[in-house]
Write a structure and sequence with these properties.
With 84 residues, this protein is mostly beta strands. It is built from no helices and 7 strands. Strands 3-2-1-7-6-5-4 form a 7-stranded antiparallel sheet, with no helix packed on it.
């Protein structure tokens, strides 16, 4: 059975003078990097992989990808696939 798990990613982001965060790109642990074409929505959200954070709904290569930021741990993650 396939379930979601947290996949922590490196994110390059822009912080404006008011403290607003705009993610610009995601880098996977294997080194692949993807530019974020557009941030479609920002709001608190609960991930399929469990836990909650600020959800950035991003468009990457034509796909909508939820990207989460945990403000307390200051870490970024995406939902990934795992097997049970």
């Amino acid at each position: 059975m396939s379930v979601s798990k947290r996949v922590f990613v490196k994110v390059t982001a822009d912080f404006d003078v008011s403290g607003k965060i705009r993610p610009l790109s995601i880098t996977w642990s294997d080194g692949r990097q993807f530019e974020i074409d557009r941030v479609l929505d920002v709001r608190p959200g609960i991930a399929r992989s469990g836990g909650s954070g600020i959800r950035y709904l991003c468009r990457i290569l034509g796909h909508e990808v939820p990207l989460y930021y945990d403000e307390l741990a200051q870490r970024w993650w995406c939902d990934g696939k795992g097997n049970v």
